[in-house]
Amino acid sequence: MRASLIQIAVNEDETAEARRLRAASLVRAQAGADLVVLPELWTTGAFAFEEFAARAEPLEGPTYEAMAKAASEAGVWLHAGSFPERDERGALYNTSLVFSPSGDLAAAYRKIHRFGFDKGEAVLMSAGDTLVTVALPGTTLGVATCYDLRFPELFRALVDAGAETLVVPAGWPERRRAHWTLLARARAVENQAFVLACGTAGTHAGMPQAGHSIVVDPWGEVLAEAGSGEEVLTVEFDPAEVGRTRERFPALKDRVLGLDRPAPRA
């Protein structure tokens, strides 16, 4: 399988529409790939909190339309990253879209873990509540977004649902870049799965981005890693390696589930 991670730069001097057109062009340029991935909130910037409500779109809005067309024209499976979605009730979500090579919507994922603690995304956006997997020829994707990477139980649940390739678009800050690569490798090792983690370049509302999109194999080995600037990271990998790894080292079979919590000490 050939995957291309588009580490697009998000800068304030470019309009969302101009970036949407540029992203579509970058996707079309990946014709011949099997899977193309864009990062989190690339239309606004992950830290441009004040832009979320103003630039929110319905699910089938301009980002949906541009990315569906780009996927169809390139003939690729496209994880189109995420954008601020406004639903019919007016609630905001950090929503990812996955399109088939025909341009049809294969899945939508609303980010479950929202970053910010008591500010930013955590208070401005609603939380999703549904696990999302997507069956591709040769592998099943498990879909997560950015801050989700810090919660291993989500990825265990995706693996239990059949995921073999974990796709994580992000707008991860440069100041915590060490966590980005560490957590991507950890999620790969503990789940014996490929991890494709696609970040952004540039600066979001004054927050420098980590970049360093990364592809990790089921043994935790880094197959490819981008730098800090705008870049398309392309890597070829064999999805069947997941099954071989799980057979050679069947650690997932030794999971002990349903443990009781210890009673509090008096």
From TrEMBL:
<keyword id="KW-0378">Hydrolase</keyword>
<comment type="similarity">
    <text>Belongs to the carbon-nitrogen hydrolase superfamily. NIT1/NIT2 family.</text>
</comment>
<dbReference type="Pfam" id="PF00795">
    <property type="entry name" value="CN_hydrolase"/>
</dbReference>
<dbReference type="InterPro" id="IPR003010">
    <property type="entry name" value="C-N_Hydrolase"/>
</dbReference>
<dbReference type="GO" id="GO:0016787">
    <property type="term" value="F:hydrolase activity"/>
</dbReference>
<feature type="domain" description="CN hydrolase">
    <location>
        <begin position="1"/>
        <end position="239"/>
    </location>
</feature>
<dbReference type="InterPro" id="IPR001110">
    <property type="entry name" value="UPF0012_CS"/>
</dbReference>
<protein>
    <submittedName>
        <fullName>Carbon-nitrogen family hydrolase</fullName>
    </submittedName>
</protein>
<dbReference type="InterPro" id="IPR036526">
    <property type="entry name" value="C-N_Hydrolase_sf"/>
</dbReference>
